[in-house]
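[stage:ingest] chain + small molecule (flavin-adenine dinucleotide)
[stage:ingest] validated
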Amino acid sequence: MDKLSPKERFKIPRTHMPEQPAQERAHNFTEVNLGLQVLAAQHEAQRCLDCASPACTKGCPVGVKVAAFVDKVLAGEFAAAAGILRQDNVLPAITGRVCPQEEQCEGACLLAKRGNSLAIGHLERFVADWERQHGVQFPPKAPPTGKKVAIVGSGPAGLTCAGDLIQKGHQVTVFEALHEIGGVLVYGIPEFRLPKAIVRQEVDNLRQMGVDFQTNVVIGRTVTIDQLMNEEHYDAVFVATGAGLPQFMNIPGEHFNGVCSANEFLTRINLMKAYRDDYDQPVYDVKGQNVAVIGGGNVAMDAVRTALRLGAKNAWLIYRRTEAEMPARVEEVKHAKEEGVQFLLLQNPVEFLGDDKGWLRKVRVQKMQLGEPDKSGRPRPVPIPGSEYELEVGMAIVAIGTSANPLVQSTTPDMKTRKGGYIEADPATLRTSKKGVFAGGDIVSGAATVILAMGAGRTAAKAIDAYLQNGTW
Ligand SMILES: Cc1cc2nc3c(=O)[nH]c(=O)nc-3n(C[C@H](O)[C@H](O)[C@H](O)COP(=O)(O)OP(=O)(O)OC[C@H]3O[C@@H](n4cnc5c(N)ncnc54)[C@H](O)[C@@H]3O)c2cc1C
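[stage:predict] done
[stage:export] tokens:
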């Protein structure tokens, strides 16, 4: 396609991503967004202003060269576009689907000032999907170094680190506690946002590049970090165990059957295939029930949209602030509303009520108003006295945050942790206080995003490679 003048480019509206109709998708688990076709992608690529100092690249935590890959899309050179993307991002089909682009690359795009940013995420997904269909070009691999690296955890941080280190010629083994590789990408994010087949294909690519994956190995139980280093002779270890420990509200009645964490709910559905008709559903049957999900982030949005798809009569999202303060991605909020999720804003559960057999029956909710900003900078939710009321529910899912997975830290006493049990690591190199051990992703930063975890994986790989080459700590 021809390049247009900047004035002409400004005039083109953002290309719409085709989606499954809301009424249909609210009852199935297939992907909501359907992807751009070739002409639509090229049409969108025409809108790039090709800025001299691209703010989009600075807005991306891994510095994807947006203008360069978008230019190749415009030229119809999709393999070249994929090559440029892969230089900075080893999981583009995933980030193209789940990154909060509006806060990162697209938020920084000059066109965003007019509320009409370039659809960078959609273009990234287009290129990555094209590459998946036409075959991935594997980057060249350095000759074997004879060094062994163990990676603990197979989320985006672990996978990125593995991909980078294998290219440097090191022997890489990823140890994963669960039976599937991918971390939150497979056990947290539901099929309708990120099909598991896409994650599996990315994992297969890494396998083909030579990464060894060991599932059902719980580091700290099956084997400790010290044993990996002293008995199995790993030269370096990267700990990327995530922040998957659910937090609860500590209100009365949280023990009733029918109250669970979003992590448990989503893990059961994602890893035990409750989203498929041909599998028995290993969760409470929410069909025809009222389900309340508490929280306002991506996890809450995933849980409530999942409950809706499993046949909930009413899927309520209870959030103590307003929509403006919600941490969830804008697109997820929009999709949830279109599908029929009901938002109970400025409200907060204060008690779960159950029957004499121990089953949840109701949730008592208090209304809130916004007060002065708190530590997070967001207005503090302040309870309105006397505003409590009761909602009849069959299930309540708590999605108010997670904290550090503690096992590796508790079995590696010479590795320093900080408040909350997160691992202390040098920001530039991700070295921990223990020689040869690096850490990154959510287990260092606290619950964050896929792309930030990938960035950490990349930083760690660079530092591990340097350490393996020169041996200095
Ligand atoms: C439901 C949900 C939806 C989300 N949606 C988005 C989104 O749309 N966009 C976005 O950018 N981010 C999203 N996030 C956040 C994002 O997924 C995380 O920030 C990211 O996955 C962190 O990556 P990680 O590699 O640090 O850890 P994780 O992805 O948590 O992976 C850690 C892995 O380590 C394994 N592990 C833990 N302990 C051990 C052990 N002792 N031995 C062996 N293995 C172990 C775990 O089983 C897990 O597989 C979401 C998170 C959740 C929970």
